[in-house]
Design a protein that fits this description.
Distance between the termini: 26 Å
Low-confidence stretches: 7-104, 109-146
CATH superfamily of one domain: YVTN repeat-like/Quinoprotein amine dehydrogenase
CATH architecture of one domain: 7 Propeller
Number of strands: 63
Strand order of the largest sheet: 1-5-63-62-61
Strand content: over 45%
Shape: elongated
Number of helices: 0
Helix content: under 10%
Structural class: mainly beta
Mean pLDDT: 84
CATH topology of one domain: Methylamine Dehydrogenase, Chain H
Length: about 750
Amino acid sequence: MLPGLLGAACASDPVEADSGASSSDDSSSGDPTSLDESSSVSAEASSEASSSTSSSSDGSSSEGGSSSDSSSSSDGSSSSDGSSSSDSSSSSDGSSSSDSSSSSDSSSSSAATQSSTSSSDASSSESSSSVTTSTGDDTDATTGDTDGGEPCEATLMRTHVGQVQVHHDGDRFVTHDEAHNLVLWDSSTLAVLLEAGGVEWADIAGGILLYRDDAGLHTVDAATGTELGALSPASAHGVARDGSYVWTSDAAALNVYEPDGTLRWSVAGIFNAPVVRAEAGTLHVFAQNVSGTEVFHHAAADGTATSDAFSGTFGGWFGDVARFWTTQGAAYRVYDTDGTQLVASLGSPSHGWGTRIVRDDAVVDIADPDTELAPLDDDRVTSGAAILSRDPGGAASIVHLDADPLTIEAVSPQCCIDGATWSFAYADGAWIIGGDDGFVEDELERSVTSGEVVAIAGSIAGRMALTMQDELVRIGEPGDSCSWDELASFPRSPGDGGLRMSGDGNTLLSIERWQPMMGLTRDGTRVYALPDGDVIGESSLTVSTHDLRMHDISDDGTLWSRMWLSFSGGAYTVGGAPLGAQLHAGDGDVVPRIAPDGQHVVISDGATDGFDTWADSATYIYDPEDFVNVLEGVVHGFIDDDHVLVAEYVDDCGPGCVSFVGSVIVDMTGTPVPTPDLPDLRDLARIDDGATLAVRHPERDPAIYDLTTGAVLWEGPPGAAVAVAGSDHVLVSTGTRVDLVRWR
């Protein structure tokens, strides 16, 4: 069964989701000289165990301030997210560095989502829940949609991409991944109140969510997920602990706004890098370029200010009150809320709460800095009144700074802290952990997400495949009301490679790295018989520095192709499946397209080297071995057994860049047929003679077209990876969720 399987929601019309993650083929690497080279047929799959590498992380976050998404900040200052996500299948159109088309192997959800929000999944289903699925027929290909029901959409699981940062506000929490996907959750029910894409930074306090995307800053009522206002971008920003205002600053001014974006007041000054504690009645600020020896206390109502002088270098604000510390050499001073010096001692503070100071290796009291209240491990993350740490043996504990006496609670999170990096957020006794590979867990040991989707695939027969970081391939078919009816699951080798399924649903091509019983690790293609997952062939590549990107395959699985990239350009092969004779091989960064019936192959050389572009591409038609005709352009896929869509591009936008001119439908003699005006559609996946799934460029948005009329039949979430799942269903991976949609 699918991990974290959720329920379905039917509707009278096809449901459109509002955000999604780009699809890319995060593949293994390699370089064949022929399809048969280093190939073998095996009845068993060998699986390479993966290991996680832990490293020390130590950051802190303060309630009510803004914080970095790459590391928390106890002082509440703002900084931008230092992480970025790249779509490994994207490049300048037509350049030889990569295939500009979206991956037909449906490697899923590794790039930033578009900037859109939705109030989706208002149900109270927990993401950790599972349902038992029917087994179906394990011998023959499925027939797609047979339930005769209305259009519907079901979220099968909640997901994230890569490292997840977390923020907690008691009854609400926020998750934000390295692909810039943001989700606002109900802490009790795990209902999703809002999703947003393209998010660079986020924080939540006092019932107000503040996040930044390319358009600027957005304020959201965390109770409902409703946007309250929008603000212009600023170099620093944050939200008051009680949610009563939002502040921004730059090199010209410090500004305070109402939650709806209305300006309350502004003070001129060089506030481009302030350290801020935003309380209900007062905005406490240290700004080096305003004064390096004072902190300022601005009345939240009108901006009037008082100041307190200090000695040393400003260190940071406490997490709960406007105390602060400074450093001088190996010593530190702590100042009270009225500017009175409380103590001077040796050490290096990183956080404060109440009367407690967090130093390098221990927690001490302000009044008794020589007495250790709790030892601290190097591997720790601080959030508000709590410190989550992991000792060298892997045991985890939470130090509660607000308890009297201070307490240490042993905890046993099931995920995340054994990874290389992790985040932690605490509020009102509740906490949440974000880890690598899209995993999130709360204090009740609930799996908030099912992890990261690695790849999806589907077929016109209705069978679907989905694989995640647990290295299991799950095979299913659409059930009633957009449910997932599981047929089988089987392991595949570790890696982030894409999948491609034959139209009859009986053969699966997988980009993998595997370890034979005897021999060196191999990169290449593995061929699985479905639904049970028996390995019926494997074809390795000879140069591990090359990057296997895409496959195509006939409906009956008897003819297949693949394309890989190298430093000098792209290359391809076409041959019989699983390991038949090679029919074609050459240079080019476009995967050869196989006719559904296997009777024709259409090959575009695309960009053949680092100086070439798609503007110079030629397209060749074969039947499937003998040459038939040649024409200009780049083939993006078959519409039916006898027609392909070919696009033309011109060099007019700079080095390595091409612009789309137009598309034409061509038959297997090379003769154009009447074609409507179409956008730049790539990575075609045939559904039937009147419907084709495509990726619209440059937006990389999925949609279903009738290519003979140009009519748009369905549009998917922006940037999502989508796979055909029979005549009426599609499987959708947005980066934050996996949906099964009946679109007609």
